[in-house]
UniProtKB/TrEMBL annotation:
Example of a GO cellular component annotation carried by this entry: cytosol
Enzyme Commission number: 3.6.1.12
Name of the molecule in the record: dCTP pyrophosphatase 1
Catalysed reactions, semicolon-separated: dCTP + H2O = dCMP + diphosphate + H(+)
Chief place of localization: cytoplasm
Subcellular location: Cytoplasm, Cytosol
Function noted in UniProt: Hydrolyzes deoxynucleoside triphosphates (dNTPs) to the corresponding nucleoside monophosphates. Has a strong preference for dCTP and its analogs including 5-iodo-dCTP and 5-methyl-dCTP for which it may even have a higher efficiency. May protect DNA or RNA against the incorporation of these genotoxic nucleotide analogs through their catabolism.
Length: 124
């Protein structure tokens, strides 16, 4: 799994599944003996820490235009890294809780659609 992505990392990977990320992260932790530290609570706290790092990027900037037209490539790379940290901890948290995050997210979207039905008159 990891070898596949090491090889493919230099070019764009078409579709990355949450399951692929989950499996890669589990292998990454297992290989380093880190599983013992990856309790649900520890992963949640790590996730919150990364959300803080993500927030710092936007802090004091005022409103930011979609597409980040005025950001440097370094700023965008930093944002990509912190967004990824958040995603990776989220995936690991769901994994150690024994949940299928992809399936759960699909179910939640369906629930949200039922809760908030489309109202054709609400937008022009
Ligand atoms: Mg980070």
């Amino acid at each position: 799994m990891m070898e596949k992505y090491n090889h493919e990392c230099s070019r764009k990977v078409k579709d990355v599944s949450l399951q692929d990320l989950r499996d890669m992260l589990a292998e990454f932790a297992r290989a380093r003996g880190w599983e013992q530290y990856h309790s649900p609570r520890n992963l949640l706290l790590a996730l919150v820490g990364e959300v803080g790092e993500l927030s710092e990027i936007f802090q004091w900037k005022g409103e930011v235009a979609k597409g980040l037209p005025n950001w440097t490539s370094d700023d965008k790379e930093h944002l990509e890294e912190e967004l990824s940290d958040v995603l990776l901890y989220l995936v690991q948290l769901a994994d150690v809780c024994g949940l299928d995050l992809g399936q759960a997210a699909l179910t939640k979207i369906v629930k949200n659609a039922q809760k908030y039905p489309v109202n054709p008159t609400s937008h022009a």
